[in-house]
Specification:
The chain is mainly alpha-helical and 71 residues long. It has 4 helices and no strands. α3 (34-49) packs antiparallel against α4 (57-70). The longest helix has 20 residues, at 11-30.
Amino acid sequence: ETLKSCRRESLEAASLLEHQFHTLAGTAGTYGLLGMSAVAAEGEETCAAMAGRPIDDERFTYLSFPVDHMR
């Protein structure tokens, strides 16, 4: 849901998405789920690179793939 909110140009949602990726990366790492942790960390870095801008179509597609596969 947060990722979809980002597509509607919600800057608060983009910040929340970065935080959620950060939390997931740390939690997954704690439990030894290193692959998931790496994917989540990449998502966090991608969100951070947006620097407060709304998510564009390219980044939405890039982030949708791992999010869909982590479900």
